[in-house]
Design goal:
Layout (H helix, E strand, L loop, with lengths): L2 H4 L2 E5 L7 H14 L2 E7 L13 H24 L4 E6 L3 H11 L4 E6 L7 H14 L4 E5 L15 E5 L5 H14 L4 E7 L1 H5 L5 H7 L10 E7 L2 H12 L3 E5 L12 H8 L4 E4 L18
Parallel strand pairs: 1-2, 1-4, 2-3, 4-5, 6-7, 6-9, 7-8, 9-10
Antiparallel strand pairs: 5-10
Helix pairs in contact: 4-5, 9-10
Amino acid sequence: MSFGSAMKTIVVATDLGGQSAGALGYARKLAAGYGARIVLAHGLDPVDYAVVDSVPGRLRSSLTEEARAALDALAAGLLREGIPSHSEIRQGAVAQMLVDVARQYQAGLIVIGTEGMQGAGPVIVGAVAEQLVRLAPCPVLAVAEDWNAGEFRPTPGGPVLLAMDRNEATEAAVSTARSLAETFHRALIVLHARTPAEASAFLNPCATTLEQFGVQSGGRFPVRCIVKDGNPSDVIVEAIAQYQPSLLVAGVKRTSGTPGLHGTAFALLARSRVPVLCVPPEVAVESEEAHVPVEVK
């Protein structure tokens, strides 16, 4: 299923503390563009309550009532904008809660807000975002709180930037980037970080990439392919500063042979204030094996 056809429901992680304001704002734009509904998902903060069962019942009840009132107000605002909305309040670890909600509503996207000032923030990269990309049945969009503030405000009508990396998620990432560029009438910039071996051989990855994945420069939106030499995360961060995209799309693998936090996608989450859309392989196996945590690159 393509990104566009799957975008009937968007799950937005709502913390009620302001950190998710940027995420909800971006989700509004996507919902309006794709005619999608928004599910506002809220859970008890696992940082405050390491074990949900240990929270006193009276406190749980007051937290739920407070959250329900806040979510109802947000949902009412969305309805006034013509965006259908529903809310879910659940207890448990945030990442698994969001995955469960996304599966229940067959969501095409999960949007999560992250702290500004430090990009997406090292804490979020090490916890919720990493688990989400490992487990989510759909793409995950991380929006830094200050993504649209001050010197980090994107150029109006900024392009969609696709970080091209050859892995099993490449086809899904290209399809997603094309859909976004076409839906919002933006230019698509396809960025290759050329390896030292490719550079020494004078290889130009753009020569075959666009044709291979069906991206046509003379299509419904402008397409530009750029090749830069260097470390992928450094190259992409530099390209973000140069081209000021409205969104960065990156395909991510669900498995890797090395342990720990690593990989271009997570480096970008930690360094970029531009919203980062992590796209997993298009086909997700719905089995017990699909729920086993694995390393992501």
